[in-house]
Amino acid sequence: MPACANYSRPRAWAAAALVALALAEPGMAEGLKVTAVQPRLSPQRLVLSGNVDIGLTPKVEEALNNGIPLEFVFEVRLHRRRALIWDETARSWDARRELKYHALSGQYLVTRRGAETPTRTGFPSLAEALAAMGNLDESFALDPPLAGEGDYRVGVRIHLDIEALPPVLRPAAYTSRAWDLNSGWTMWKTQH
Q: What is the CA radius of gyration of the chain?
């Protein structure tokens, strides 16, 4: 009899794992990922080019298609590397992108708000709108200019701004993993 009890224990663990997977919120494989960034640094400007993979969970996509605008924040931090102590944050910027579904025209509208003039572009499909949102092409002024040479790194992160959602939706967004869209910080070496 003890042999049977030991044999059924792995089956019980496997069944529990399958139940946990079934109860997990769908679409958790989606999310945000900074895949490539090429920062170029001059005395007056930091220019970023690169790509961010943007994937929406089914709950977030459903809200978007029901008229809820989504605002994503690109956070950029310029760090000067130091030998003996932690890196110094020399500058920081935020660039914003809003994604909205326009039901009358059937288009997805992407509004870019960054260091330059805001622009709005319409796309016939969500995939095209997400690809355009993930195209990182920003320029940030260094005012005042950086003092001297140094070894600089750029930290980049993108996340869904839950505070920009309608107030009635925020409690659900804060408590649901389906709304937790955040790439985490990635560091990239600058080119001069």
A: 22
Query: Measuring CA to CA, how many Å separate 78 from each of 45, 91, 112, 142?
Result: 11, 5, 21, 10
Residue identified by tokens 């994604």 is: 99
- What are 69's two structure tokens? 């605008």
Instruction: Supply 99's token pair.
Output: 């994604």
Measure the CA–CA gap between 186 and 50, rounded to whole angstroms: 12
Q: By the 8 A CB rule, do 181 and 60 touch? A: yes
Number of H helices, E strands in the chain: 4, 9
Q: How many CB atoms lie within 10 A of CB 150?
A: 15
For the stretch 35-94, pLDDT in tens is 999 999 887 889 999 999 999 999 999 999 999 999 999 999 999 887 778 878 888 999
Instruction: List, in sequence order, the alpha helices (H) in the chain.
Output: 2-23, 58-65, 126-133, 170-175
